[in-house]
Amino acid sequence: MPEFEVTALDITILVGYVVLTRVLFGWYYARKTKGKGAESYFLAGRGLTWPIIGLSFYVANMSGGSFIGLPSAAYIHGIAVYHYEWIPALVLILFIFVFLPLFLDAKVFTSAQFLRERFGPRMQTTFSGFMLVESIIVDATVSLYAGGRIIETLFPEFPVWITIGAAAMVAGIYISFGGLGAVVINDALQASLIMIGGLITLWLAWQAVPSWEAVVEASPKNALHLIQPPDDPLLPWPGVITGLLILVIYDWCMNQFYIQRALGAKSLDHGRWGALFAGFLKLPNLFILILPGVMATVIYPDLKDPDLVFPTLVFDMLPVGLRGLMLAVIAAAILSSLEAILNSASTLFTMDFVRNIRPQTSDRALAHMGRIATLGFMLLAAVWAPVITTFPSLWQYLQSLLSYIVPPVAAIFLLGIFWRRASEPGALAALLIAVPLGAAGWIMVEILEWYAIQYLYVAGIQFVFGALLVVVGSLLSAPPPLEKVDKHTFRWELVSREKSHAKTLRWFQDYRILSALLATLSLTMLFWWW
User: Fold this and answer.
1) Distance between CA atoms of 130 and 103, rounded to whole angstroms?
2) Residues in CB range of 520: below 8 A, 6 or more apart
């Protein structure tokens, strides 16, 4: 592996970026929003417009896990990992037509609050607890670990736990200043940096390979095709349909980490346009992150640690100065995802636990508690992050754990929205039985290796198991109150209402036309790389 030499200019650009966009801007935004209460802190006063929502959606997903995991998986297996990028574009269409209108009509801060409105208070508390644990051991941990690995590559004299702690401190302090508003405004700048840096890296990687034919020859068999055989270790095509689709629906329609931006939308239209904008931004990730990983099989055929593909490409090829810019890009991705995770976790803790236990707490006090909770969650994530070192790759840790624990949650939301008979006992049964059994299965398969099964197949099994528990538990209990069902389930009269509203929009504002265009582009990418 090439030796990396970081110059004073590189470090100056990196530190200058962090200070200007994190410390100074965080302090400024904290003063601007001081005393404005919980809605301002957690949902940016429900005044976010579509460009900010779309860019923030995109940047939140472009975590350190993406910069490390996607090129690493592409280096080993090929471009099939792109399923994680084009499928969300389609799922966001489902989100804007079904989930977002119900969420905004309910005027909730969190997806857990929606479950309270649909099922009852026990469901809200239980799901919030699940989301808090998942945010710490999956989302925040992955971002911290990815950042630690990148910085460790540059400064091998520092142990990874030190670099993880430094990233945790910066992100925790920043988000505790300004809340969601501070996060999303910075995301607009960071999205531009990510795009520019990724395209520069792609161009330099392309210049470094002899030809496209050399890339094809060096890549594993079938590596430049999205559709992989049923026994593929990473993304078998049946697993994409039965498992990956469920994981993506959970992430982009139910996970507080992502949807919080849309919950802070100025209006339903802005929420829809922003989500669709994020879908369009996802599609170029094939060229920004995945194909450079494939090209690296030619440039670095004997790379020992695939998780270091992206930092190796960046710091071996970029000249001084641009290398510092890419350091800033990576910092943007890691810090943005951490900030989004922390803000969503503190929102869940404050609005779903503190406010329920102490309903008399003022909005200003809730915002203060959210800031304290943010720092506590960041500390927990930093302590857990080194556990990932026991796995072969970051990607395996991330995707395998999600496959075992989140499909039952997707079953609860989908049945709760589309099946009027779904009740709280059924939803609780799925959450309290299927999720713990999934966690136990993950330990037995992925850690103890007692038996072998591809994790996307497990995701499909877990979804069916969770759905069965919801159905059986609901049929064995009393029907839910009609007032909960009518307001919080999908009804065809909503479609008629939306048709009338769409007639008031100009053609380029019509979310139906934009959705059709996004679906066409997504499916074109699928068939082009089939």
Assistant:
1) 19
2) none
| Distances 149 to 16, 67, 306, 310 between C-alpha atoms, Å | 21, 11, 12, 11
User: Does residue 439 carry a pLDDT above 70?
Assistant: yes
* Cα–Cα distance list, 183 to 179, 240, 322, 476 (Å): 7, 32, 25, 45
Q: How many other C-beta atoms lie within 10 A of the C-beta of residue 24?
A: 11
**Which residue from 434, 91, 47 is spatially nearest to 255, judged by alpha carbons?**
91
Rg over alpha carbons for the chain, rounded to the nearest Å, is 22
333: pLDDT strictly greater than 60? yes
CA 508, CA 510: separation in Å to the nearest integer? 6
pLDDT, mean over the chain: 78
The helix/strand count (H/E) of the chain reads as 30, 0
**Measured between alpha carbons, how far is 150 from 159 in angstroms, rounded to an integer?**
12
Q: Half-sphere exposure of residue 260, counting CA atoms within 13 Å on the CB side?
A: 34
Which two structure tokens, joined as six digits, stand for 226?
């999205």
In terms of Cα–Cα distance, which of 364, 181, 362 is closest to 260? 181
Cα 508 to Cα 54, 250, 267, 511, 517: the distances in Å are 16, 29, 17, 8, 11
Whole-angstrom distance, CA of residue 179 vs CA of residue 355: 18
pLDDT of residue 41: 44
Q: Which residues are registered as beta bridge partners of 48?
A: 265
Question: How far, in Å, CA of 514 to CA of 507, rounded?
Answer: 9
Res. 357: pLDDT tops 80: no
CATH of domain 8-528: 1.20.1730.10
Distances from the Cα of 100 to the Cα of 138, 329, 529, angstroms: 24, 30, 31
3-class SS of residue 48: strand
